[in-house]
Every structure is written in structure tokens, then in C-alpha cells.
Amino acid sequence: MAVVRFLRWGSEKKPAILCLHGFMGCARDWESFSDAFQRTNSEFQVIAPDLPPEKDISTSLISLLDSEGLVSAVLVGYSLGGRLGLHSAIQNGTRFPIFVGISTTAGIEVAAERARRAERDQALAARLSAIKAPEEFRLFLEEWWELPVFSSPNRSSPSKSEFIQSRLQCDPDRLAQDLERWSPGSLPSLWSKLSAHKKPVLYIAGEADFSYTALAKKMAASSPNAKVEIIESAGHQLLIEKPLETALCISKFLSQTDHGLSPRGGGL
Questions:
Q1: pLDDT single digits (tens) 164-222
Q2: What span, in angstroms and rounded, lies between the C-alpha atoms of 102 and 193?
Q3: Which bin fits 24, alpha (ψ -120 to 50), beta or left (φ > 0)?
Q4: Which residues lie below 8 Å from residue 262, measured CB to CB, with a gap of 6+?
Q5: Between β-strands 201-206 and 98-102, what pairing exists: parallel, antiparallel or unpaired?
Q6: What is the 3-state secondary structure (H, E, C) of the chain?
Q7: Distance (Å, rounded) from C-alpha 211 to C-alpha 265?
Q8: Is the predicted pLDDT of residue 268 greater than 90, yes or no?
Q9: Measuring CA to CA, which residue among 83, 17, 3 is closest to residue 48?
Q10: What are the pLDDT digits (tens) for 2-27?
Q11: Is residue 184 a contact partner of residue 116, using CB atoms and an 8 Å limit?
């Protein structure tokens, strides 16, 4: 099992929010969010790991909690991290008694659609594996930024430049492996499990991210104890576009939820 590297904001003596980044991301993606969250809610520490290279990351996340002496934590996931986090929360409700999904989904319900997505992502992984020069990767990232799913009234040229510059640090081969490991075409659908998951859940989506706004509402309607927050004038990339508003949504949700978390030796 891989050692999980992580960043921390706030005191290790406080209850924890464990934040999972999206595809092509890293722990540092949570910096702006965490700075904002610490200003709005000093009750928690924020822990953001780099996703370990394992298809089922639940064991690694629990090992991280154990290594930090944490009995339980709020689990927050963005996009791909949301799908992986939802699986972990459903599978390990005692360790992750509260889940927050940002711009995420419970997977692809229809088997034929999963197969088509798997085929597309296999082709994308092959393209990433074939990249040998930085300029090839830069072109890939520029095309990725322009994908329709990321369309938003709140995007800007500086944001694009910062995104590309940060993602140039990624290894295309590792990204190809992540696609093969975590493609929505290969991960199981969790829709049938939502109704049995009775722990508190919050789904957040950007107003301009029409597909994921609909998914957030559908997931909340399928869960017995879920809420939805839609952030105005924002799209899919909420950690880039609206970190403060995202932090405020989560802070508000936690203030209204009896989380019962204890930093060390306690828990639900």
C-alpha cells in the first residue's frame, strides 16, 4: 500500500476534514479553499492528500486517519475525488460519517454507457501515454481547459494560465494510469446504494454546470439525509472559481449537522 502524502491546514488537535482532489489534481488544489475555510470555521483542520495510486483508495484513507490518530473525519471530494469519496463514505460510514461531494456524480448507471465511456477514456489514456515533449502536454492541457464541461461565466485567462502551469507538473504516464484505474467507465455505479446511505451528505454544484447541477439534485433526492447547494455564476471547477463560496457552503452545512467528531480517541 502506497504511503499517502498530504498537506494540512489548521491544528492537528482539531477534528478533520479530509479533502480529495480531482483528475489531474493534487493536494495543493485545496489551498485556496482551505485558507478560506480556516477563516470561516476554525473548528476543523483540513487534510488534503495526493490520491494514492490504487483503484480502491478506502484502505489508504483509513490508514491515513489511523496514522494521524483520527477515529473519523468529514470526507470531501471534488469531481473524481467525489466519486472515490462517495464510495469510501458508503463503504465506511463509521470512519467517514459525513460526506460532501463537489461537482461530482454517483457514476454511470447504464452498462452500455459505461462501456462507451471506458472506450473513450482508454483512447485518452493512450494519447497521454504517447506524450513525450512538454509542448505536446501543454497542447493537451489547453484542449482540456476548453472542454464543454468546464464552461463557466466565471473563468478567466489568468485562471487558464495558472491551471496549465500547475498541471504541467503532472506526469502524463501517471495520468494515463489514473484514467485506466478511475475512469467512470470502469468504476461501479453507486446509484443503487444511495438510498441505504443514511449519513449526512451535501452535494455542491455550480449554477452553470448544468449536468452536474442536475446530478447533484438527483443524488440528493435518492438519499435520505442529503442536501444540495448550488453556487451562482460558477461552473464545474469550483475550487478555482469559487473557493470562498464553496468553503462557506461546507461550513454552514457542518454548523447545522451534529457531526460528533473528535480529533483523537473519540468519534461517533
A1: 999 999 999 999 999 999 999 999 999 999 999 999 999 999 999 999 999 999 999 99
A2: 19
A3: left
A4: 15, 71, 72
A5: parallel
A6: CCCCCEEEECCCCCCEEEEECCCCCCHHHHHHHHHHHHHHCCCCEEEEECCCCCCCCHHHHHHHHHHCCCCCCEEEEECHHHHHHHHHHHHCCCCCCEEEEECCCCCCCCHHHHHHHHHHHHHHHHHHHCCCCHHHHHHHHHHHHCCHHHCCCCCCHHHHHHHHHHHCCCCHHHHHHHHHHHCCCCCCCCHHHHHHCCCCEEEEEECCCHHHHHHHHHHHHHCCCEEEEEECCCCCCHHHHCHHHHHHHHHHHHHCCCCCCCCCCCCC
A7: 41
A8: no
A9: 17
A10: 668 999 999 999 999 999 999 999 99
A11: no
Question: What is the spatial distance between Cα 63 and Cα 91, in angstroms, rounded to a whole number?
Answer: 15
Sequence-separated (6 or more) residues with CB below 8 Å from residue 133: none
Long-range contacts of 141-147 (CB under 8 A, 24+ apart): 141/167, 141/168, 144/24
The three cell numbers locating residue 157: 485567462
User: What grid cell was written down for 120?
Assistant: 473513450
The grid cell for 191 is 446509484
Tell me the one-letter amino acid at 252. Answer: K
Residue 265 has a pLDDT of 46
Domains of the chain are 6-109+188-255 (3.40.50.1820), 111-182 (no CATH)
Query: Which residue bears the cell 495558472?
Result: 162
Confidence check: pLDDT of 30 > 80: yes
Q: Going by C-beta distance under 8 Å and a sequence separation of 6 or more, which residues neighbour residue 244?
A: 36, 40
